[in-house]
Amino acid sequence: MEVFQRRREKLAHFIKGSAMVLTHYPKAWRNHDVDHPFRQDSSIYYLSGYEEAESIFIFRPGHSPESVLFVQPKDEVAEMWEGRRLGPEKAKELYQVDACYPITELEDHLSELLLPVDKVYYEFHKNPEFDKLLLQALEDGRRSRGRTGLGIPPILDAKEMIGEMRLYKDAEEIEVMATAARISAEAHREAMKFVSPGVNERQVCAVLEFVFKMRGADRIGYNPIVATGDNATVLHYNSNNQECKEFDLLLIDSGCEYRYYTADITRTFPVSGTFTSAQKDFYDAVLNAQKAVLEVCKPGTLFKDLHEISKKHLSQSIHDLGLIKESADTILNEELYKKYFPHGTGHWLGLDVHDVGAYLVDGESRPLEENMYFTVEPGLYVPQDDSTAPEQFRGMGVRIEDNILITSDGYKNLTETVPKEVKEIEDLMQQESLLTKI
Predict the structure, then answer these.
(1) For this structure, is 253 an active site residue?
(2) How far is CA 220 from the centre of its chain?
(3) Which position among 264, 352, 402, 426 bears the catalytic label?
(4) CA distance 201 to 155
(5) d(Cα 360, Cα 206) in Å, to the nearest integer?
């Protein structure tokens, strides 16, 4: 609890006199009579540690009570069917908040809690039902002031404020993120050893999740992308049900979630265990681009420069591979590279796989700073039906993604234990996987 209290103390410096209101997601995980696993809202967890469903956290630094939780009430029947609940009394004690009420009493307290605050930090549209309750509570507060001429307090986007805090990882976060990266890396290595011609993408998914859970991960960080052959040219492919064929490349984009923090790793390798000459040329184009980006990962580098370097290197490779006949400069300047490299080079990483945090400051690209955590993931994709591309590259999709923590003088790659050099990949794939015997 000291970690969460320390985060609230830090936030208090920025919003003293105001209130941050963080709400749960609606019951979207329910499907008729089937309950899907619930995951707490990332920012509620970040500031309180509380994990049960249907909870709201209000933080009012400078007012009493400062920290307020609304939680599910104790209910013997509901708990028999759905699982134990802490209830307000126990939640207040365990999570060390100043006040804790049943969620059923939300409307009784909300207007009173928001009445004295200068500003309200809130994220609209996440929970439309609560949007209405919040606005009504603020209007009730305005009316209660009588003929003072005072209106409702300004409402600012909580996501922007909490995102600024979550962008800089503290020591506890870095330790947890390193564990998520280590488990995810082990799963990727095991998947490489497992794959051979004839296995199904869904079996590879099973290997990944097996290792995640056996090594202590709580859940998958996001739906895995396990894409063989032309499937890898679909950026968010998620069918994961096709047979891996001998002369295909296999792209795996997958990471586990450990104590709410997600890793995000992508590797691409030959199903046969050995790169063909064309596969190696295509793969090395992406690998060299990633290496060039990693060289500048240090404090002071602008985030946009990571993508600028990727674009430049891949534009040259697109020309060299004969994918586009124009010069590398033309490919870059006229953005022709987007045909084969349509996405960005990276994103913030943390409690969410695409974590919160602004990429621009005062309209300019943000410089990297110590304890920022993000991905570096250039890629090239040539669909099978691209008749303008050289035949040997059609149906190839390659992405290489690592998780990077900025240090005081450079960076640390938390996912570097997953091979990405051609020979290292081929050597690992020659090792026997214990899972092939299942």
Answers:
(1) yes
(2) 11
(3) 264
(4) 47
(5) 39
Going by CATH, does the domain composed of 2-165 fall within 3.30.420.40?
Answer: no
pLDDT band at 77; cut points 50, 70, 90 = very high
2-165 against 168-437: fold identical:
no
Cα–Cα distance measured from residue 186 to residue 183, given in angstroms and rounded to the nearest whole number: 5
Name, in order, each residue with C-beta under 8 angstroms of 434's C-beta and a sequence gap of 6 or more: none
- What ranges do the domains of the chain cover? 2-165, 168-437
Phi-psi region of 44 (alpha: psi -120 to 50; beta: other; left: phi over 0): alpha
pTM higher than the cut 0.90: yes
Q: Examine the residue annotation and report whether 399 is marked as an active-site residue of this protein.
A: yes
Nearest to 18 by CA among 62, 57, 56, 48: 62
Homologous superfamily (CATH) for 168-437: Creatinase/methionine aminopeptidase superfamily (3.90.230.10)
387 has a pLDDT exceeding 50: yes
Catalytic status, residue 123: no
pLDDT tens track for 182-197: 999 999 999 999 999 9
Asked if 24 is an active-site residue, the reply is: no
